[in-house]
Amino acid sequence: MAPAASGNPLPYFTASGASALAFFPLWKAAAIGQSGYEVAGATPFQKYWQAMKPPWRGSLVVIGGMTWARAAIFYGSDMGSQWMRTQGFGTALSSTVPSLLVSVFAQTVNQPFVRSSIMIQKPGEELASRTCPNISMIKHLCATKGPTSLWLGLDAAILKTAPKYMVAVVIKDYMGQWLAPVDPANKNAVLVKSAKVAVTAGIAGAVLTNPLDVVRNEMFKTEEGMMPCMARMTRETGAAWLFRGINKNWVAVAAPIASTIFLTDRFKSWMA
Predict the structure, then answer these.
(1) What are the angstrom distances between the C-alpha of 154 and each of 86, 106, 211?
(2) pTM summary value
(3) 10-22 vs 59-86: helix axis angle to the nearest 10?
(4) 36 Ramachandran zone, left/alpha/beta (phi>0; psi -120 to 50)
(5) Would you say 165 and 73 are in contact if contact means Cβ atoms under 8 Å apart?
(6) 3 state DSSP class of 146
(7) 210 φ, ψ to 5°?
């Protein structure tokens, strides 16, 4: 996903929006699973389906937030990396620094909407039935716990989001160099190479940061700090919490990241 010469952000936002819209049900299922919310169902598949299906509370906020944040991270990473290389920096710094900086900014801006979106996924949550459930939850948190509560879990969220995208960007950049070159005229070969890079980057970023997703979502429920939350879960379940919801999360996170990387390449070609 090398930056276009014109630096056109449209392919990034188009790809990110399409991916966020397509994979929202998977995000919903992962959020419910990692938060430990109970859903009906006798088998794991039935519970997964129950978590995925409508009502899709807060979907517009989640999709909008994912669209701008993911597009900004990949666009900012590509353009920042390109600029740093022109200044003489190596691949390692050029791939990591821009993605980390933009990820921290995007997560900080989105955090109140992330928290409210996850909390209204709780089955039976009264505020979820409001016309604007995210706004209702944000107002409720401000009134009952203070405005700063909207950023509870930001430390875990940054520790999760920044490495997730950094890993994805680094793998994307390095794999593009490591894989055998393909003839640009061979469309099938180009597609296969792009798909390999996208899928590997998405899965690695999702799996490696799953524990921090769990910590952040648990903090939303209990109002604990990150370290006390981690210590309590370790006392209660040992290391099992590290893998809570990973069966849903690696799909819910890896799929849209891989899709965004892959579709950005495709949209760049089509818009060239």
Answers:
(1) 33, 11, 14
(2) 0.76
(3) 140
(4) left
(5) yes
(6) coil
(7) -55, -45
